[in-house]
Amino acid sequence: MLRLARVVIYAEIQVPLFGAAVCAGFPSPAEDWIEETIDPAALLIANRPATFLMRVDGASMVDVGIFDKDIVVVDRSLDPRHGDIVVAVVDGKRSLKRLDMSGDVPRLSFANASLPAFVAAELSDALIWGVVTWNLHRLRTR
Amino acid sequence: MSERVLALIDGNSFYCSCERVFDGRLAKRPVIVLSNNDGCAIARTAEAKALGIGMGAPYFTIRDLCRREGVAVFSSNYALYGDMSARMNEMYRSFSPDVEIYSIDESFLDLTGFTRRDLVAYARDLRETVRRWIGIPTCVGIGRTKTLAKLANRIAKSIPELHGVCDLTDPDAYDHWLVRVPADQIWGVGPAHAKRLAAHGCETVADVRDLDPRQARQSMTVVGERLIYELRGISCINLETVPAAQKGCAVTRMFSSRVESLPVLEQAIAAHATRLAEKLRRQALGTDHVSIFYHTSEHDRGEPQRSVATTVSLPEATNDSLALARAATWGARRLWRDGYRYSKAGVMTFDLVKLAFSQRALFDGFDRERSTALMGAMDACNHRFGRGTVVPAAANVERRRSWSHADTALYDPPGRAAARERLGAMICRVCRS
Questions:
Q1: What ipTM was estimated for this complex?
Q2: What are the beta bridge partners of residue A98?
Q3: pTM over 0.80
Q4: Which candidate from A6, A10, A89 shows the least CB-CB separation from B24?
């Protein structure tokens, strides 16, 4: 299930972006420098009227890095593509799924190894509500 | 006939459609939304209408029907509807350089300059984009005047074959529909006017259009006269003159020049809120929320663009200029950001209640008796000396004429310290021409 978060996205804040990518492997000797400033809201929200924030409830998408209580950014103006994480409406219920268009018919799958791969045989009885563009995952526990 | 082309776009069963966007199980079920305090049905989907649920039906009279027929019943959620409305209007601004918000779900788009064939395709594209991006089904009516656009919208709604778009700037469509649509479908024609029109032998919209305007003025005042010109394609209705509809109303304006400072914006917002409150008081209506928006202009290409909107809740319904102006300016201040040149601002409400019957707040309510006296005095002054004579100090807008004026307190009920305190916050400028 997904719950709609109260979406008020008016806090434009410019934050400097450090040019050198943060190293997630071995440290790099390069020095950090400020390359540009970024508005986090503008980065997350490309098309404001069509963008909705939703809070994730459940663990069906942990294999793509979406966890319980995360907030996903959903853009309804995008055309869904193979491999997209989408908000799907199956039997009237809203949920996160991965869109698989590799076969003859598009299919929706969970992203959790402990769950069955496919939920809907084909898309005829499901609806794609929007495409997930970002996931906001809190790393520091409160 | 004017060369102007106006489109009126509105959401179908708007509040219900908003609820449907977020709950896929509602797609085929009848849905209704109830007014403040769950009093009566204020929005119904086509399925709910088909069950015989009337507009404004008190909930207790339809509760059993709703249970039996599986109607999904919602309390109104104005924060949600306000957000969806702001999204739609933001989208409209990428389709038209001039968008005028009429109510929470109705906006006029100026489409002057489009050739007729492109027009319908453009309107369809607009509808389709709103449906896809935001999820709300809409209808679009196109005409030379606001009255014709509104009429076209009604036709688009009731004739499924039109697929949600009716264009009355097309002479064939204009001739076809005006002789077929009953006169009481015209915007602003209530039961009283409909009777008078019938007395003139008017059955269809075309009959009304062909009346002699001067005669109409005698029996139906200047309102009737304007209506006839509007139906002929001659624009003469200013939205300001249209009374507040029960479903809410808006006061919006372009600034005479771009606004770059917060105090100037606050003044404009306060002035809009004051006008809104006046409109409500004329009909003894009140509101328990006020929505404000302001944005830069699409015409200023290359300049940073910004558009903001928010809804401020009040503890209970009111039509007090001071309360509404204070709430509206508070909202405007919260959203303010320097460095933009704003071109337009507006104040809206989405649901109006008869003030006398509205539920009172347990805590932090307004002093209605005092407010009624104060607002009554304000309206009386404005009626006698002209609109804008007495306004809250916060809304002290610049005037075009030069005034000889004196700063004076307006109303001081003797011996009431609280009232005086309030006056301190509201030094009115009394101007006489």
A1: 0.79
A2: A85, A109
A3: no
A4: A89
